[in-house]
Design a protein that fits this description.
The chain is α/β, with parallel strands linked by helices. The chain has two domains: about 140 residues, Alpha-Beta Complex (Aspartate Aminotransferase, domain 1), CATH 3.90.1150.10; about 250 residues, Type I PLP-dependent aspartate aminotransferase-like (Major domain) (Aspartate Aminotransferase, domain 2, 3-Layer(aba) Sandwich), CATH 3.40.640.10. The chain contains 13 helices and 15 strands. Strands 2-8-7-6-5-3-4 form a seven-stranded mixed sheet, with helices on both faces. It starts with 5 loop residues before the first helix and ends with a helix. Bound molecules: D-malate.
């Protein structure tokens, strides 16, 4: 037996597992500490009542022989697919066909699994900093080369996001085959406009590249000039796959439902990526449960949409409170406006992990060290607006009083 040795190249623990472990140790050593967790972007608001009603109703259907359901359709149930088509795309003047929508259990799984349909030989471009799943899954797949002393993988094309470019990476000079973009961005919270995305779409079409566009945070967009989907940009259907999720918008992190769009126009030579993904999913994925898909469908009802918007507004307000509080405390801050994430510079000369420890020690507030998202994240830190508003206010007070 031989293992996939690429796994050995990775750090033994995933970023958010490391943070969880560190906080667990701190908590065990300081049992009285009132820890406030603003690290992982996990929601805290209960599910909207429309969603709960739909879950109950669907569960009852499973109790009856006449309405019981077995395996769900591999690509998802029509009732959910048509709601997505209608509300997430048609309302924004984007036409997506039903068979281009693949219901799944998460954008994390899909952005990781999509690599299955691409050759190991592809040159992968990743933003730095970036959501670690894109990097780690390509390391697992053998596309990374070796880790250099700078903490970068030798075969990846790094798209540096920094203060100089306002965290919008420039187009690379070399040819990238697979390009991971995430807007509104995790971790920086920055959101791209159409003119910026158009440059990527043109580059991808010219180079026969594929943009893997993670739009999991589109629900947090507040500014009118920011597109919610990459398909709002002309030409994107021949070069982009889009990932969406109910996790951060409708509070489904514990329920699990997401979807991926693979346009039929998107081809590699004569081969449609849509049919490759359909084949991959039919073989390796059992589909999302009927109950869950009914819950997701409820998100699109009139009442459901209003309730979801209420939850998003709640988190957006938290992000604003954090952003303003940090600015008052003298930090340089990005994000928050179209995102639940607030990204800021740590005090002079500290590393992100040193600041993580200091923050935990002085304020008992947990955040995410920027360097956990890649070498260019060193010296930065991320807080999320997904906490309760009371705890968020308390965290901001503690940070202000700590006088870093
Ligand atoms: C994050 O904190 O970056 C996200 O919660 C991670 C995720 O969605 O998997």
């Amino acid at each position: 037996m031989k293992i996939n040795e690429n796994f050995l190249k990775l750090q033994s623990s995933y970023l958010f597992s490391t943070i969880g472990k560190k906080v667990g140790e701190y908590s065990a050593a300081n049992p009285k500490a009132q820890i406030i967790r603003l690290g992982i972007g996990d929601v805290t608001r209960p599910l909207p009542s429309e969603v709960i009603d739909s879950l109950h109703k669907a569960a009852d259907e499973m109790a009856n022989e006449e309405t019981f359901r077995g395996y769900p359709p591999e690509q998802g149930n029509d009732f959910l697919i048509s709601s997505i088509k209608e509300y997430d795309y048609k309302l924004r003047d984007v036409n997506i066909d039903e068979d281009e929508i693949f219901i799944s259990d998460g954008a994390k799984s899909d952005t990781g699994n999509i690599g299955d349909i691409f050759s190991q030989d592809n040159a992968v471009a990743v933003c730095d900093p970036i959501y670690p799943v894109y990097v780690d899954t390509n390391v697992m797949a053998g596309r990374s080369g070796e880790l250099t002393n700078e903490g970068k993988w030798s075969k990846f094309i790094y798209l540096d996001c920094n203060q100089e470019n306002d965290f919008f990476p420039g187009i690379p000079k070399e040819k990238a085959d697979l390009i991971y973009l995430c807007f509104p961005n995790n971790p920086t919270g920055m959101a791209a406009d159409k003119a910026y995305l158009k440059k990527w779409v043109d580059y991808a079409n010219e180079n026969s590249s594929v943009i893997l566009y993670d739009a999991a945070y589109e629900g947090f967009i507040t500014q009118d000039n920011i597109p919610h989907s990459i398909y709002e940009v002309q030409g994107a259907k021949t070069c982009a796959i889009e990932f969406r999720s109910f996790s951060k918008t409708a509070g489904f992190t514990g329920v699990r439902c997401a979807y991926t769009i693979v346009p039929k126009e998107l081809k590699c030579g004569d081969v449609s990526l849509n049919s490759l993904w359909a084949r991959r999913q039919a073989t390796k994925f059992n589909g999302v449960s009927y109950i869950t898909q009914r819950a997701a469908q409820a998100v699109y009802s009139e009442k459901g949409r209003a309730q979801v918007m209420g939850n998003i507004a709640y988190y957006q307000n938290n992000a604003k409170v954090i952003s303003e509080g940090l600015k008052e405390a003298g930090f340089k801050v990005w994000g928050a406006v179209n995102s639940p994430y607030v990204w800021f510079k740590v005090p002079q000369k500290m590393t992100s992990w040193d600041f993580f420890d200091l923050m935990l020690e002085k304020t008992q507030v947990v955040g995410t060290p920027g360097s956990g998202f890649g070498p260019a994240g060193e010296g930065y830190f991320r807080l999320t607006g997904f906490g309760s508003s009371a705890k968020t206010l308390e965290a901001v007070d503690r940070i202000k009083n700590a006088r870093f």
